[in-house]
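Quick illustration for those who missed Monday's session on complexes.
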Amino acid sequence: MRTTVGIIGAGPAGLLLARLLHRAGVDCVVLEARDRAYVERRQRAGMLEQGSVDVLQECGAGDRLEQEGLIHSGFELRFEGRSHRVDLPSLTGGRTVTIYPQTEIVRDLIALQLTDGPPLLFGARVVAVEKADSAQPVVRFDLDGREQTLECDYVAGCDGSYGASRRALPADGVRLHTRTYPYSWLGVLADVAPSSDELVLAAHERGFALHSMRSPAVSRLYLQVPNGTDPKAWSDEAVWDELDVRLAAGSWRLDRGPVLAKSVTTMRSQVIEPMRHGRLLLAGDAAHIVPPSGAKGLNLALADVVTMARAFTHWHMSGSTALLDRYSENCLRRVWQAVYFSHEMTTLLHRAPDADAYDRRIQLTRLRRLTRPTAAAAEMAENYAGMPIV
Ligand code: FAD
Ligand code: DHB
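Prediction with 3,4-dihydroxybenzoic acid bound:
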């Protein structure tokens, strides 16, 4: 098989890239290791910056997002038993965010691609990317028990942090920056209407808790837990009890419902520099991971592929590799801004295992200055709402 851009991975990054390239007349093929049902059900992010919403709408994947997305103009910071609302429009010159689950974005993009798009092969597990530093890279993949090859002009590695793209990077010349935080998130999806119209981020002295949502009928909740926690070690009742304690504020009540899914995510940052090796360009989680406290992972993945699609389109139209050559540099500025913000939110809201009363006082002081319309609050709100994708 042969194509212009071989895309590895049908997560949000790979699917949006395929959509943008298809609309620009650039040939591509998407190889996805898992089956369609698995990819469409994988529970992950839920908060979209306005720039991400705009991109999905512009590429024709915005119909359901427009109807079902929940526009949020603020969120609550909760600590010491009190709630403090952060008003995004007044702090950012009018910006808001939209709650629309990653599962639905993936579903919308897959439906579009299967009716009007380039080939998308499910069950196609890439085993190697070869000759990335030549003019004709080759992707080797298994499909139906047979090894096959895809010859390409370029390869887009959109296959997450455990994919084949990272394994194709040379040990020298590419640097991996990494930070693992000493805590994880236990995430639960619950079949119950959200107890609050807006997201609630709680910095309790027993640890962080987050009340989020996926729709007017489904809640998404998170608890800080120690690294290595087995989700099965937490009964549903224990999860609700702990959420009650950490999210408590005045007369506010958390409604309980059947738990549909439970999983643990480690809080970590990783950045690969540069995000390119020869004709292999990385995007999304393949290139970088951020802890979810800033809700930036999905938004960064979409911003990367907008930049990448623009570079491929420019090359396709003009033969110039100028934008491809600047791809990594152009992405990394936004990536490090998101890594920094995610780090700030992570340390602002979590309790480190070795934290003492001094650390807690510093944390409360940081939190309090965010509850007034200060420069610090404006900076947090701007980062949370996100910068336009340029
Ligand atoms: P992915 O969504 O990981 O997609 C990669 C695709 O590549 C997958 O479909 C995978 O099956 C496929 N693949 C992998 N290896 C191969 C191979 N060898 N061959 C072919 N295909 C392959 N972000 C937030 O902003 N907020 C959150 O609340 C949040 N929660 C998260 C919870 C979890 C458990 C995880 C893991 C991530 C979370 N994130 C969150 C991060 C966000 O979901 C990711 O940043 C986003 O999925 C990145 O999209 P992507 O397309 O780069 O990668
Ligand atoms: C989610 C929302 C957030 O604002 C965040 O920081 C992390 C996760 C969510 O809805 O999954």
